[in-house]
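User: I would dearly like some help making sense of a protein record. This is the protein in question:
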Amino acid sequence: MAADKPRLFHSNRDLALSLIPLVIICLVVAGLAGQCSFSPGGPSQGQIPHYEAGPVLRTDAMRYQFPIREPAKPEGWHTNSGGNDAIDGNDGGVAVRVGYITDSGDYLEVVQTNARPAALVRYMVDENRPATGSESVAGVEWTVYAREGAEPVWVADRGDVRWGMTGRAGESDLRRMATELAQAPPLPDQ
């Protein structure tokens, strides 16, 4: 029987050889659990979650004391997220939000709120931004809050409600949603 090598003579090769069985065991366990996959062509688009915004918006219209609208989805768009949150601060309120995936695969979030515009911008992008411009779409004036290298925020102050939009979607998609918001009637509050 051969004597074990003294510790002084153990090498990196010995360490690597002892780790190989451990790596193989980890890969087998991960493969069986379905938590990894091999994709030589790179990542692929997964299933877009579906979110049914209509019933939630109708319930929120009865719950909150500001007019909420359900804009029509442009063709090829999908709702994929939504909910409502509190916007903190003296100028805060309630944010009713719906996320959309556009026909080009970009994300656009729409928020309807009774919070003031500055609080809405802070809520949407987690920073204070000055207004950098304006856009007029379907008779509604939108204030644009843009910053280099970041997604712009569009805010429309409609008196009793503020609308906000942001996301990777381009200007044409922002304009499409702004038009749909302007054309949608307020949902019944009872």
